[in-house]
What we know:
Distance between the termini: 39 Å
Low-confidence stretches: 1-18
Number of domains: 2
Oligomer: single chain
Strand content: 15-25%
Structural class: alpha/beta
Helix content: 25-40%
CATH superfamily of the largest domain: Histone deacetylase domain
Strand order of the largest sheet: 7-8-6-5-4-3-2-1-9
Mean pLDDT: 90
CATH architecture of the largest domain: 3-Layer(aba) Sandwich
Shape: elongated
Bound molecules: zinc ion
Radius of gyration: 27 Å
Largest sheet: 9 strands, mixed
Amino acid sequence: MIPPSDSGPHEKPQAKSDGADARERLRVKFGEGDYLVRALEAGDMRTLQEFFYSHNEETIRMRYGYPRKWMNDEDAYKLVTVDQEKDPALGIFQEVEGKQELRAIGRYYLDQGGKRAEIAFVVHEDTRHIGMAGFLIARLAEIAEPRGITEFWASVLPDNRTMAGLFVAVGGKAAKAALDEERTFEIGVDEVLKSRKKFLEEKKIETKEEIQRKTGIHYDSCYERHDTGEDHPESADRYRVLMAALEELPAEFVRLPGRMAKVSEVLRVHEYYYHDLVWRDVEEFAEQLRTGDTAICEESYEVALEASGAVLNAVDAVMAGEVSTAFCATRPPGHHATATRGMGFCIFNHVAIAARHLQEVHGLKRIAIIDWDVHHGNGTEDIFIEDPDVLYVSLHEHGYYPHTASDTQRGQGAGEGTNLNISLPEGSDGETALLAWSEKLEPEVNAFQPDFILISAGFDSRMDDPIGGLRWTDETFAEMTRRCIVLADRWCRGRIVSVLEGGYNPEGLASAAIAHVKALEAG
Length: 523
Ligand SMILES: [Zn+2]
């Protein structure tokens, strides 16, 4: 009945249910005030007691049916450390002089059968009539419903007309009782959920999940070891200029370490024989990968693994809540690499490897990949073309390398509808791109409802790039970043990992990447 708090190693955690998690934190506007709704925590014991003692005796008797002095240390501690997976206890807090003060609590206690639960609320006198109790019932119903609870019940003292009125308003029915007796209400959880929207609209209550925004960045001189030879656009020099700019960013940007990807992680995306081929080409001192136009040196296999690993590390940091967004300045790039073929300066497809890692290690289901490199990410498209759980959307210059982009390619088989190519005319500017973003890209991502957003961040779509023919500015990248954040906030708790792809004018690359990273941080 109650889902386990953590799944076993062989069982994928549920990616997304329609139900709410008691531990989610929500920012809620009641009337003119901003409040935080969250589960009670062990540190709330004193706050909880202060809340009780700030009420008059009458209120406590009426709401809880016992004198307020009963809220002693032991009882308060029991309530704040309750098992939220079984008997959730939520608080509505207001920040007063940097301290979180409790304004209302709502909880349910599961009955033995596991199908019914008793609900109880206490709202502070100062914040009555703005809908807190109604909000809490609805929130508890959202938590209860996926746990298989079908009915709430509550006892209401005869003089507590407000509470009785609320229970009736959310579909509750009272058992018959004499006028001066306690009445027991029974309230269908589905009834509460049905009336929820109307109630929130009437009381003008707005909610959004609280996102603690923090941005991680990753850069490392190890990537300079991938030597592509003289006069190659994808050079270590290009990287040095970018890294110097990133190093200048203040300490608020969390520096994320790298790690080398394991072969097993690469093999989630690439065929074994292709991985082996890369290794052998490097061992044999080849100057090019035999599968295509990708210059290599004797360090390239390792550096490519470092790049994939750093992206996985950034993904893990976001999933652990250490940061909400991250930018990985890695090379070689990845989006042209298919499961079986390196090309276009790419060896392993880091973004694709990250998508599979999110699904297999973190149990997420739907991953959206937004690719704004000037070139079409043929590798990423090819890898996920039949996958309904990975949305690939590419903005790129029309009719250009690698000549794989078709605006009518919407995916194949089960993946029909989860691929979108948006070709932009040569010489077009950021405005054209942003218009296409609103008209085509955004509706697609909204319909898909991703659990995580990955960005293939190429900056060769910027003006003055020696390879690209688009004329985007730094502001174009900043605006696209802000729009990604809006989407990520709406669908996936703000989770974004962005990975460097192209960008071959070193100064232009550095300045566009900095605009991107600053926008990631500012939200
Ligand atoms: Zn490119």
